[in-house]
Design a protein that fits this description.
Blueprint (H helix, E strand, L loop, with lengths): L1 E5 L10 H11 L4 E6 L13 H13 L3 E6 L2 H6 L7 E4 L1 H6 L1 H8 L4 E5 L18 E6 L22 E6 L5 H8 L4 E5 L18 H19 L3
Helix pairs in contact: 6-7
Length: 230
């Protein structure tokens, strides 16, 4: 069972806040902390990750003994990470829909890659990526937040689909727990220190440290019960 803490841009452009976000993600039971690179990253924008900032994120993740992962959203972002080695990468829904060649470029690194399909049809994997074996597909809806009416086609049994996990944009932790009870083995959930923060929309649909910890504890227990055949 893998839990990904999606910090994304919830550091509000303050790189030093990432230290606390990474620490609290670790304390809350996350296996991976994830950031976005190549999105809203121009000079003066909220997610401008320079090489020095990337090094800090890696250093802090090592200190707290939690894996770091990046969602690469542009070729510029790809180039910024070319001098680093990571075990896993993430391909965002918008990249699959709008820049399939970048998705292939990331997959050609031959690392384990989580791929969200929030903007794609969900009956079959994208034909353009069918030759790649290093993909773990994530069921997702690119609505922020995702309303319950948008989840009527949520998988009843993940093991009967090609999806490994669920990337959540709903409010609360109930949908990730429902996904685990239906066979998902990877959960990605946005993480915040303050859900009332209105700097960006993602804070509202994120989990606080207490919520994330509750999700990981109950989720792992559900996962282990399912492994026992219960």
């Amino acid at each position: 069972m893998i839990f990904i803490s999606e910090i994304g841009m919830n550091y509000n452009g303050n790189i030093n806040l990432c230290y606390e976000l990474i620490k609290q993600s670790k304390y809350s039971g996350a296996d991976i902390v994830k950031f976005q690179i190549g999105w809203r990253d121009k000079e003066g924008e909220i997610n401008r990750l320079t090489d020095d900032k990337i090094k800090k994120l890696i250093e802090w993740s090592k200190y707290f003994e939690i894996q770091i992962m990046f969602s690469i959203i542009s070729n510029d972002g790809f180039d910024k990470l070319k001098n680093y080695e990571f075990p896993d990468y993430k391909i965002a829904s918008r990249t699959v829909k709008h820049d399939i060649e970048l998705a292939k470029k990331i997959l050609d690194l031959k690392k384990n890659t989580f791929v969200s399909l929030g903007m794609s049809e969900k009956d079959n994997p994208p034909k353009e990526l069918s030759s790649y074996k290093n993909i773990k597909y994530m069921w997702c809806k690119s609505e922020y937040p995702t309303d319950l009416d948008d989840l009527k086609d949520f998988p009843k049994d993940f093991k009967k689909t090609f999806f490994t996990g669920y990337s959540d944009h709903s409010i609360g932790i109930e949908m990730p727990l429902l996904a685990i009870s239906r066979g998902a083995s990877v959960i990605e959930k946005h993480f915040t220190l303050d859900k009332s923060d209105q700097t960006i929309r993602d804070h509202t649909l994120s989990a606080t440290p207490k919520e994330f910890e509750l999700m990981t504890k109950i989720g792992r227990d559900i996962f282990n019960k399912l492994k026992l055949g219960i």
